[in-house]
Specification:
This protein has 161 residues and is α+β, with helices and mostly antiparallel strands. The chain is 21% helix and 43% strand. The longest helix has 12 residues, at 7-18. The two termini are 24 Å apart.
């Protein structure tokens, strides 16, 4: 059976799965291998990209300068793994928009501090498993239209590129 899914339908599926999950695990590549750490999910409309705030004084910042390939994992009622490329963004207006008092407590500074930087994850693909009695997923594409959906797969991938 073949199905065609629009980019918007794929974005909506992923958005629904990660909605209201406050913490994600961001995986970067260090000189010693893969490193995962919890990151606060931004309360903005998911459009296919993810946003995080960090300090330039962290290991993750240095790791992203060397290798921007990342994975972001969300766990709640479903499991979502999103692959993408991180971009370090210095947009003061976007920092102000995303800022909250919890960052001031965590980073010990304000959004105006030049050490504060945004991480924009340009998403490429998402793989997810919906919980229940059986594992279930759907192959969909963001920003492209794809064709075939194999219902016999254990899990499926949402292409976000």
């Amino acid at each position: 059976m073949s199905t065609h899914t629009t980019n918007q339908e794929a974005v909506e599926t992923v958005k629904k799965l990660i909605d209201k999950i406050e913490t994600a695990m961001l995986t970067t590549i260090s000189s010693e291998g893969l490193v995962s750490r919890p990151m606060q999910t931004q309360d903005i409309e998911f459009d296919g990209d993810l946003w995080f705030l960090t300090s330039k004084e962290t290991d993750k910042y240095q790791e992203l300068l060397k290798n921007p390939s990342v994975n972001v994992a969300y766990v709640d009622k479903s499991y979502v793994s999103i692959r993408g490329t991180a971009e370090l963004v210095e947009d003061i207006e976007r920092k102000k928009e995303l800022w909250s008092p919890r960052y001031e407590a965590y980073l010990g500074t304000t959004y105006e501090d030049p050490k504060v930087v945004l991480i924009k994850v340009n998403t490429e693909a998402a793989e997810y498993w919906e919980t229940g009695n059986t594992t279930k997923s759907v192959k969909q594409v963001l920003k492209k239209v794809v064709g075939k959906d194999d219902e016999n797969e254990i899990n499926k991938t949402v292409d976000l590129s």
